[in-house]
Design goal:
141 residues, 74% helix, elongated
């Protein structure tokens, strides 16, 4: 049985491991959000009040789009591929615009907006820390 050190690959730093865990945690939330939208659209949740055929057009467009975007973002984040955060950003910005700019149509949800902003800030902090960490490693060589 080979050990990780036997493969000659550099060990990931603690920050890189934490960033991977962060991706996976956000991926789980994205998958849950996608399942929530799907359960609303097919009438399983809320006693069928949010069933697709009963929604106004603006909600049909938003809910159908988010029902696809959230699971795709979750899969991309779970696999830690470059397009995962991009799809997450599109879905999060969609919900921020919905609930922040059009509260008369979609309702106010400041907790959701705050959550998206907090995740984006944390993602940015991770990227900055990793950038400077990699830069200092390259200069040390």
């Amino acid at each position: 049985m080979s050990d990780f050190r036997d493969q000659g690959a550099p060990r990931p730093s603690t920050t890189e491991l934490a960033f991977d865990v962060f991706h996976r945690i956000i991926a789980i939330f994205c998958l849950i959000a996608g399942l929530r939208y799907w359960s609303l659209l097919i009438g399983v949740a809320e006693q069928g009040a949010w069933r697709f055929d009963l929604l106004p057009v603006h909600w049909k467009i938003a809910a159908a789009s988010l029902a696809v975007l959230w699971p795709v973002a979750g899969i991309g984040l779970w696999m830690i591929v470059s397009w995962g955060p991009v799809v997450w950003l599109v879905a999060a910005l969609t919900e921020i615009v919905m609930h922040g700019l059009f509260p008369e149509l979609y309702g106010e949800d400041w907790m959701m907006i705050g959550g998206h902003v907090a995740v984006a800030i944390l993602y940015g902090v991770f990227r900055i820390v990793l950038y400077f960490s990699n830069r200092s490693d390259e200069q040390a060589k």
